[in-house]
Amino acid sequence: MRGIERKVTIAWAGIFLALFFGNIYKRSTSPVVPWDLWQSHTKDTAEQFREASNYESKKNDARILYKNQRLPDFSGIVEADTVTARWLMEEGRWPEWKANRYEHIRELWGGIDSLILSKEGWDQVAWTWSWKPIPKLGLHHIPEEVLYTHPLWRSSQVRAFHHYRSRVRPVRTWEELFLLDAFDSIQEFLIPCYFTLVE
Asked: Is 122 in the same domain as 151?
């Protein structure tokens, strides 16, 4: 243990030594202002600094004015299936992470309906959402990868379902499906809303 501590100490000492010599080298290569010109040189620098700080303060004032100038909320109808994250950020004034999450959730579910909107808290907006029912996915034809990415399914449930479907036969009833693995009551309620057993 002591050997490791010693090596770490030596490594840090080497880093600080390199920084020290780098600083000396930088100072030796920077232009030196003669003493008689030092006063005029510092005046120029101070003036440049003042101009730069004035520019920055004007920029900050413009930013504050833009932030405080709040546009009226959009109050029309928004299509939940076609609205883009960019629109939600610009017109709806949603933060970027929220708009991107909206698109991600819509992709995972295959659409957006009132249930998902209220679950995520997206129904509390100034506009009116318009949505179409999410088309039900047929469990007999759906690829296994889609089930793994769907928010309603757990990986153990997908494995049990796929194993049963490939080794025994397609599932005939929802009760039969829910006996394959542990499904909770919310899943038992929602899976028939978003999936179908029709062949």
From this structure: no
